[in-house]
Sequence to fold (303 residues):
Amino acid sequence: MRDFSQDHHWLSINTATLRKQWPLDRIIEECARRGIRAISPWRDQVAAVGLERTARQLRDTGIELSGYCRGGFFPALDAAGRQAALLDNRRAVDEAKVLNAPCLVLVVGALPGALSGKPDYTDMCRARSEVRDGIAATLEYARQVKMPLAIEPLHPMQAAERACINTLEQALDLCDELDPATLGQDPLSAQQPVCHLGVALDIYHVWWDPKLQQQISRAGAKPTKNRLLAYHVCDWLTPTRDLLNDRGMMGDGVVELKKIRGWIEQAAYRGYSEVEIFSETNWWLRPGEEVLDTCIARHCSVV
Ligand code: ZN
Fold:
């Protein structure tokens, strides 16, 4: 297992962690000042500063992306809605290319309209099938431009509003169906087949899963086509007071972070550990400098 205790070489900051304190350009500046090598920005934060300007700032500071948030939300009431979602996902893939992201993270969606309180339908099987078709269509384009897609399974408490893919097993089943892992399948890289469809593993969503270790090892089972494309960390607080915006700082909750990192490294994951904390009543209220410094300290001590 890599030693994180001496430096923060493998720390990435998901910029939602500081979205209430700073605009994206300031976040990049503050990360660069602290020697943080990677971030994962959200589309709205990039749009607020400008895509080209953000790309330039990333080049100037030498900061790279550990992912781009996010595509997805495929299900819709009618064909026009589903088509609009596909177009939007295509745009997200294009933006990810401009920013040189290693993957586009997908929060796949669930019952359309549920997020605003009024679901257009309640058929979960239909939602899952529309998610499958949406990923398949987006994957066709993403393959052409060589932008891997990373499905993020969300905790089942968010199954109605945000994602009807809720376990790593479910996400990997879909990966195997839509992007079969065949050696040499990619003619442009016969030696090292590219993983076009994989997973973003977010500890907040998957820490409780009794099949977690088994499925992590499945994700990394084919060394030439590792499905583990991103790793998001925070902590699970007891009690958790808000389904979405009460994530804990690493070390403040019950997640066995080092144990789980051991599993993903055993499965050959060698990427960044990306801190993603939505925290309405704690970390979003603190000065950004303190949040970043704490992320660095906890990355070294408990991740
Ligand atoms: Zn995440």
Summary: The pocket of zinc ion is lined by residues 152, 202, 232, 276 (CB under 6 Å). The beta strands are 11-14, 38-40, 64-65, 68-72, 104-107, 149-151, 197-202, 228-233, 273-275.
